[in-house]
Amino acid sequence: MATDAEPGRRRRCCAQDTPDAPKIPDSRGDSDGPRRGSLCDRHCAAINNVHGDLGDLGCHLHRPRVPPAMSTPSCCQQHSEEVCESCVVKTTLTAENAVEANKLSNNYKFGFKKWKSHVTARPWEDRSEIVKELYSDLNVIRASGGSTLTCGNVLYLLLFGWWLSLLYIFMAAVMFITVMGVPYGQLCWDLAGYFLWPFGKVIQKVEVPKSHQAREAGVEESSALLGGPTPLRWHPRCWVGTGYWHRASSAVWLCLGYPVLALAHGLVCVTAWLLIVLIPVAKLSARATSRVLLLPPERVLVRRLRMTEVPLEGEVILCCYRAANPYYYKYAVDGINVFAVNLLPLVLVTLVLGYVDSPNHLTGSAVKFSLALLSIMPLSYYIGMAIASISAQSNFAVGAVVNATFGSITELTFYITALIKGSREGNRCYAEVVKSALTGTLVGCVLFVPGLCMVIGGIRHQEQRFNSRSAGVSSALLFLSVGGVFAPTLFSKVYGKLVCGECHNVTQNPLGHYLCHNCHFDLMDNNGTLYYSHVQPLVYTVSILLPAAYLIGLFFTLKTHTHIYDIHISDCHMPGHHHSAVVHWSRWRALVILLLSTLCMSACADLATEHISPILTNSTISQYFIGVTVLAMVPELPEIVNGIQFALQNNLSLSIEIGNCIAVQVCMLQIPILVLFTIFYPTNFTLVFSDLHVYASMFSVVLMNYIFMDGKCDYFQGTVLVMVYFILLAVYFFAPSPSGC
């Protein structure tokens, strides 16, 4: 199904006979049913038919078109039956330009960040009418605007309209009292009625009639607001016509009236913008402040629109019909989603409040911790946007380096700052929180992210298919990584010595049952011989093998077996339109934003770890639960949103790959980097996890692989994954805190 993000996307399934696939008659007249060769014939004909479908759009695939009569023998000579059976899903993508094509191609590459938003400006004619309305100025008079009595308009009246109208009435009275500001007082009186209910009304900049221009040709007065020659007033409210009086009236208005109204409209603009659905009100206030209130009063005409009325000649400044639009969640500013724009000031507030109010005089640690954690979300978005922009505008090597270097920077920044703080304070809780966050990210990306995408995507699509071979590569790497990460833990369980903090005899019999608390496997027995001679070398060996396996996976999927993904990207756009790439962020701009976002991320992570200690100490909730939920999933919210958007477009392959790639990077990149960091900066972090982490991670990986075996899913399977995730969260919630915390 074509969408705004991928307008030319098509899928072809060869595992079953579909109405779109042309049926090739068997020349031998066999009646024993379809043979394996006929399945290959229909598959190859369907591939060639994909080009035929897109040929009407003027797009040319990288595969040359072959006539149907010739495609059957030639295709089956080139493709064996095994290839025809293994290729389940064919995907064709249409991109507006080469940069966008690189971004779409990178989405299907293992190890690259999957990014939904465009990195280039989309052609205006290709936008839907809903999106065009979002970006249109409020100066278009419609033939039929419909009823203006809507819930959004009533909400505007309750939130802004009534007090804005009263403020304009008050300013009108002030202007009348000054005598010299009478023209502006009349303007405020007219605008009071307009801003009480602006819907279905219009504000125009009226042109001066030629007769007045000829009569006033020798006057040549200068406007204090606009500058340049201005004719004498002809509007009925303008009862004086001397240049001195006009300058005095403008001075009174600029000193007494305009600042107050500009401040009020600024408050309305900020409030409406933060509410997002009321962005039309923000545009209304901004345009009124910058245009209407700076015009001479005789040039402003406020009137109500009527169906049979012929509009006057002149520029339409404001014409609004709706105060709210629920589709403004799609709105973007310079390629940045409006949610990320609105959360950016939160980062500045967090940094100022965190470092200026160190003694916690203004706010407590809980507030600062919450603000620091929320600030990570927009910074994660900016880092993702910068990585996608650089990768789309660079070659493969640069894109791979940028994704490998900054792909996990959000999580690593928080983990390293937490380990440093725990080492300085001698507190083992920070290391346990980091382990909980690592496990929470792994479990959440394996269960919650694909499960949620399946549920939401299944609401729109009854059954969704995905590339089982590409998912199988990620699953195999996930099995390998989980086994490698938890190998030292299993080793310590087998050879470690069980030590308990406190034991009580339940039966009062020396040979009876004992109830013990705070039990753990001691690896430091006999001066740490077991740990330093056996466990630590195993940890270092695993930390070397896991990144090596990750590199082999990259080489396998990106070099030797690229046909697994089978992605075809057309190299042109709609007929009659040729569009050059207009990127939102150039490579240097994206690099600067990436570095600044990383720096701010480090500061926010430092504040979060600085103020998490009182929460861990005073909270009745288990530290396990805090780590696997808040600290693990909040930084991944931008990725979850991308996965949901892909699922809604029936592109579940990318939704699954988002979760799998993050989980693989946690085990194969993030954990080895933390182990490497502990070599140069000794901390309390050891690669030995609790039993709960081991069982939850392994069960999640096994369940995920079972669900993804057949290459198709529905909302029921997604519900199973989500429910299992919530069950594990309940286990973590009721679990006791780690020993030593």
Topology at a glance:
Elements: E1 10-13, H1 36-55, H2 68-78, H3 81-86, E2 89-94, H4 98-107, H5 129-135, H6 151-177, H7 182-196, E3 201-206, H8 210-215, E4 221-222, E5 229-230, H9 243-275, H10 279-290, E6 300-304, E7 314-320, E8 332-333, E9 336-337, H11 338-356, H12 365-392, H13 396-406, H14 409-425, H15 429-460, E10 464-465, H16 468-485, H17 487-495, E11 497-505, E12 514-522, H18 525-560, E13 567-570, H19 587-610, H20 613-618, H21 623-633, H22 637-648, H23 652-680, H24 691-707, E14 712-713, H25 715-734
Parallel strand pairs: 2-13
Antiparallel strand pairs: 1-2, 3-6, 3-7, 4-5, 8-9, 10-14, 11-12
Helix pairs in contact: 1-2, 4-12, 6-7, 6-9, 9-10, 11-12, 11-19, 12-13, 12-19, 14-15, 14-19, 14-23, 15-21, 15-22, 15-23, 15-24, 15-25, 16-18, 16-23, 16-24, 17-18, 18-23, 21-25, 22-23, 24-25
